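User: quick one, sequence for these tokens?
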């Protein structure tokens, strides 16, 4: 297994899909120019609209979504693995899927994943979120074989459900993706510790591109895109501004860490 360079594209997306596609594409080109082989964008890459009808009116089904062909063409042009953290894809008369896409260097969709755990939360400061009002949950684990090992695909609020990530570890994933649009409030409290925990528990690299800053709709996201090694050390981190976060990945570190602490083989049944 050879080393490779991973990049997180950190964004501050709005409800203007064309502008978001342009912004994401420019940052993806920047990452590729810095030698990245695998590039990940955040959750809600092309749409950070308020929940409800306004958001639904701006979405398309997969066949007609304008972002997906643009990103597929870009992956092929740049010759990179391009992981779009999520797009809102219309799947019914009143629901979208929060869907991630992993695109190979030939522009083909190698894997997709519909977010399983939906963010229905009322925070103490009055922030109120009900993702399930417009989003249909997924129900399938998603992994994909990259040239350097297997990647487990998840999205944002999934981070709080460790059994999902144990499934990735048991499935032989060396890398875990957690693109996100974490709120500023919850990010300040929990983002780093949960990200590091998922890496440590499974002896895997964690790569998490994030939304950051105050969005046009008033929502504030935490940013701090992270790339973490299997020992839980942070290799690279963003701030709150849009940009690119880069780290070199040595897949051999996964086997080394799992050899030192073989917790994945020590699970026992209980009742």
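Assistant:
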């Amino acid at each position: 297994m050879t080393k490779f360079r991973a990049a997180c594209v950190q964004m501050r997306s709005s409800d203007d899909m064309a502008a978001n596609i342009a912004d994401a594409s420019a940052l993806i080109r920047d990452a590729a120019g810095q030698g990245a082989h695998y590039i990940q964008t955040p959750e809600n890459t092309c749409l950070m609209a308020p929940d409800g009808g306004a958001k639904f009116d701006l979405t398309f089904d997969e066949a007609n979504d304008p972002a997906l062909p643009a990103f597929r063409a870009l992956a092929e042009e740049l010759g990179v693995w391009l992981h779009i953290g999520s797009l809102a894809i219309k799947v019914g008369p009143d629901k979208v899927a929060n869907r991630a896409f992993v695109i190979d260097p030939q522009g083909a969709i190698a894997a997709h994943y519909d977010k399983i755990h939906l963010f229905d939360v009322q925070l103490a400061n009055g922030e109120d979120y009900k993702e399930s009002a417009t989003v249909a949950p997924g129900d399938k684990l998603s992994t994909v074989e990259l040239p350097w090992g297997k990647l487990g695909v998840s999205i944002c609020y999934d981070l709080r459900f460790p059994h999902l990530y144990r499934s990735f570890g048991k499935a032989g994933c060396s890398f875990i993706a957690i693109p996100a649009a974490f709120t500023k409030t919850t990010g300040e409290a929990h983002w780093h510790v949960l990200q590091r925990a998922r890496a440590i528990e499974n002896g895997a690299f964690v790569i998490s591109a994030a939304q950051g800053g105050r969005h046009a709709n008033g929502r504030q996201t935490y940013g701090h895109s992270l790339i973490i090694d299997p020992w839980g050390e942070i290799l690279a981190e963003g701030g709150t501004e849009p940009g690119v976060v880069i780290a070199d990945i040595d897949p051999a570190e996964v086997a080394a860490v799992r050899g030192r602490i073989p917790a994945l083989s020590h699970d026992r049944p209980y009742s």
